[in-house]
Amino acid sequence: MYSLKILILMLSLALSIFSACGEDKITAPETHELVGTWKAEKFTIYWGSISNPDSTFVFTFVNDLQFTLTISEDNRWSAEIKYPDETQTDSGGWWVDGDTLTMYGAGDGDDVYEYFLSGNKLTLTSSETKGGYTTFTVIEYTKQ
User: Fold this and answer.
1) Residue 130: exposure state from Cβ atoms within 10 A (0-12, 13-18, ≥19)
2) What pTM value is reported for the model?
């Protein structure tokens, strides 16, 4: 009799567990707004501050030099720099937290950017302080 009560209890428990399981909907992950291929249009370095720099260097990418950044849904990125006589590539992983894009796998450490999107335009801004002096880098891209 004792084993019959245990069997009934176990069956009741099993039935309640299985009947509680509904059909779960599996949805594809959302595509992040950064996913795509981006062509760099302009690269600017500000020494001191962006609003009132001590000096500024502006480089505009033209036909002889092209920089393309591809950001994939699988949290991987790849970059290609085409010079007149050679092409260089690099790749790694990425993640986003708020308006901060972190790209890892390139060079010596993570590259952290504040990003801003407006239509098909992407702006990445980073800063680095060495010896008490801050340098800001701004790269402007157009989605391809």
Assistant:
1) exposed
2) 0.72
- Residues 94 and 74: their CA atoms lie apart, in Å, by 9
* pLDDT tens-digit series, residues 86-141: 999 999 999 999 999 999 986 667 899 999 999 999 999 999 998 888 999 999 99
All residues at 6 or more sequence positions from 2 whose CB lies less than 8 Å from its CB, including other chains: none
Which listed CATH number (1.10.10.10, 2.40.128.20, 2.40.50.140, 1.20.120.1200) goes with 36-143?
2.40.128.20
Nearest to 124 by CA among 134, 133, 114: 114
Percent helix, strand and coil across the chain, each to the nearest 5: 15, 55, 35
Name the nearest CA neighbour of 117 among 136, 99, 131.
99
DSSP state of 144: -
- Give the 3-state DSSP-derived string for 1-56, with helices as H, strands as E and coil as C: CHHHHHHHHHHHHHHHHHHHCCCCCCCCCCCCCCCEEEEEEEEEEEECCCCCCCEE
